[in-house]
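Q: what does this look like with adenosine-5'-diphosphate bound?
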Amino acid sequence: MGSSTITPLQILKTYFGYDSFREGQEEIIDTILDGRDALAIMPTGAGKSLCYQVPALLLPGITLVVSPLISLMQDQVKSLNEAGIHAAYINSSLTEGQISKALSFAARGVYKIIYVAPERLETASFLAFALHTPISMVTVDEAHCISQWGQDFRPSYLKIVDFVRQLPGHPILSAFTATATEVVKNDIARILELKNPNIVITGFDRKNLYYRVEHLTGKQKDTFIANYIASHANESGIIYCATRKNVDTLYEQLLKQGVSVTRYHAGMNTEIRKESQDDFIYDRAQVVIATNAFGMGIDKSNVRFVIHYNMPQSIENYYQEAGRAGRDGEPAECILLFSPQDVMISKMLLGSKDFEGMDFAEMEQVRHQDAKRLQIMEGYCMTTSCLRNYILNYFGESTDQPCDNCGNCHQEFEELDMTQDAKWVIGCITEMRGRYGQALVIGTLLGSKRARLREIGADSYNCYGQLQSRTENDLRLLISQMIRQGYIVQTDGEYSVLKVGNISELQQKNTQILVKKFKEKEKISASKKRKNPYGKSYFEAENTAGNSNEATNTSSPNAAKKSALFETLRQLRLQIAKEESVPPYIVFTDKTLIDMCEKLPGTESEMLDVSGVGQNKLKKYGQRFLQEISSFLSNNN
Ligand code: ADP
Ligand code: MG
């Protein structure tokens, strides 16, 4: 192997400025350096890029990285260049002239790492280049794109293997994805023809993400968002809405409130959309409001919160979208604002789904799947147990301990004995002969005066108004628990109805139905619990943690100073990012700035101790940051 004296750890420190590898990284790197194929399945933000970039610097020839999106390639190449590594991309954003120039540089060995779109591999000029240049490794990033069962299938990923077969030197193959399903994993290994690959799968958990569900009506959602943004000024965040209309309305609203906000949905023209995306990535806009069209190909590492204005259609979607928070490993928050109406919206959206090219049986199959996923998603919003465990269990990771780092774990509960109520619910469904949905069942039991109830004659049922002392939310919790326990069956589809399930246990004398619900009055504000990495609250939270007998609200001068310094460094970073035409997080991540505030480096060698400061960045930016820190300290002595 190339320069045998340099170790992967030295590369990590020298170029990337990190002291240690994260879970799975070293194993993948060693596998590759042993000349063996590798497949890594690691969650978003786990650090997959370094797993091929570090060995790429140690292998004798070039590493080709196949990546699905231009924006991802640009981001990666900028990051590598900032770290002092020669890398380039070859894709359709370049002119033919630029491409042949890049290829001739590449042939002369100027670049260690070259990013390409899969389509590029099929072109004659690229193949000619590849046949005459030593290629040590072919890396397939976002490798799930090869599977028809994945979310972002790209047919041209299927051709990668044809390209690799033609290469003379039998390069090592490595593949990376965050999609952990069995089918996708097997597809990747099989279709890429990986030889005896070392398959490394790390846990799916993203420990730095704080999950939280808030049950709110439409108006309350708007207030929540306004308050949240006001108390998280300077934090970058994404707000996902289910529809374009919601995006536009919320956007106008926040704009009026003076929030630095942009928006993104498929109804906007391509250029404006691109501009909005850049405004967000370059921190010119604090918040982006978007439909789920936004996010693919965004590697922005300092997203501190992802709020869902509406419930998404599946846990898969939710995990992917929420997972765009906290890529830098610093604490970040994922909040889902739930209202029962969201379920209706989702059903409507699924109902209008395009089934082109499917026969009836396939269509039914997909419908059934969709409905099931939606139910499980709704279960996430209704559960009173640990939210993280709910997600992990869904992805097949068994966990038992509550995480103590989610809204539900920090929530206080009370238990209601709803055994009698459960019997009335069954009575109501029986009287309705299983023809109606949850809303009508609840309305009937509460004795609501809705016209629709009169129309169906519900106001003359025995059970009408029997549970009027309960709230709608109590009954919703009860019914969702009874569905989980199998006492009630909820049918699929847009007009799902409730039917009586297996109630033999319920009819036994000593069966009790206990429903856990949030204690409204003592609701602990979750945002207080989170260590906020950005600005004030982070340093305050930290300070009070070490000083628990100091139960005052005033922050210690130390914390206030740190957060002021953080803000100063953030401004400097923004300034440099402008000069360099790169997004601020590529200059330094939030984590790096926070570490500077903690360590207060005074010399170049102290600066090198800061996480994320490698040799090249020290040379480029070290002096400016040292100066800023030193003048801040002397002004604030
Ligand atoms: P993924 O592709 O798995 O989603 P990335 O490769 O984009 O994740 O890495 C996410 C972030 O983690 C980047 O900011 C990267 O610099 C950082 N990172 C990766 N490895 C380490 C490490 N060993 N120590 C500290 N930070 C790391
Ligand atoms: Mg990645």
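Residues 8-201 form a domain with the Rossmann fold fold (CATH 3.40.50.300). Residues 71 and 570 are 24 Å apart (CA to CA).
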